Amino acid sequence: MLQMGSRCDIINKDCTMLYVDLSAMIQKLWKEVCSMAFLETLINGISLGSIYAVIALGYTLVYGIAKMLNFAHGDVIMVGGYAVFTAMVTWKWSPWLAMLFAIVVCTLLGITIEKVAYKPLRKASSLSVLITAIGVSYFLQNMALLIFKEKPKVFTSVVNIPKISLFDGKVVIKGETTAAIITSVVIVVALSIFINHTQKGRAMLAVSEDRDAAQLMGINVNSTISLTFAIGSGLAAVAGMLLCSSYPTLTNTTGAMPGIKAFVAAVFGGIGSIPGAMIGGILIGVIEILGRAYISPQLADAIVFAVLILVLMIKPTGILGKKINEKV
Questions:
Q1: What is the pTM of this model?
Q2: Which of 15, 157, 263, 284 has the largest count of CB atoms under 10 Å?
């Protein structure tokens, strides 16, 4: 009996110590959440997520309308970054003119990629499109490597917005952060209005629903799909400028990982949904930055993909995705 009592005392003592440790851990975590450092980290996550959202919109548009996954989209971001860099550093253009030049270059590049690489494969298998997209991606990366060499370029920010100080300077919001958030919101709103309230936008919706029926109704399917690639690539140029302004190192693989994460964001939010791309991008950005700050910088990417797997296990279509019933 004495031995049994002593064991119970030991168990109770261990449980008490565990409770105290957990309470201390929770209190520490709560204090961290309520701190200004957490707020600043969260804002940085929203900023990065806003950039992912702009990139994800390109994936969402192309897949939703052309039913193709353009995995070269991330490398169009890199081309946009190099276009701005060349215009500002080599040609000494103003930031606004350089940004316009990058958008034009990426828009023309998107149309060219669609005409040369994807148009002949519209009735081909998804595997053929995927292999072609990977080939286009490596082609763009190696062309950039040949032209600009392997030495990383230091990118000059195109954002000229002053910092915002909150709570007596305890929280500082950089101009690049403000620009990324505002730009993503404006783009999502403008794109939603364009798709739902213009003739070209309604043509895109018709092509996304039924390409053959849209053609019978007099819609030029080829020009509609080209317009989709043009818009998506133009958005990639904007995302490249925002990304390189926030993280000012430019190489031939700059757009590779952000492109993959933006694709994850598009799937996360529900690929084909414009609001879903926005929500998915912001959530992925917040998860990545919080994981990098509070768990491990090395595991941040793994956490992002793990969260995606969990979400798709619960809701395979993504947060705002719709289930499509196919006729057999």
A1: 0.86
A2: 284
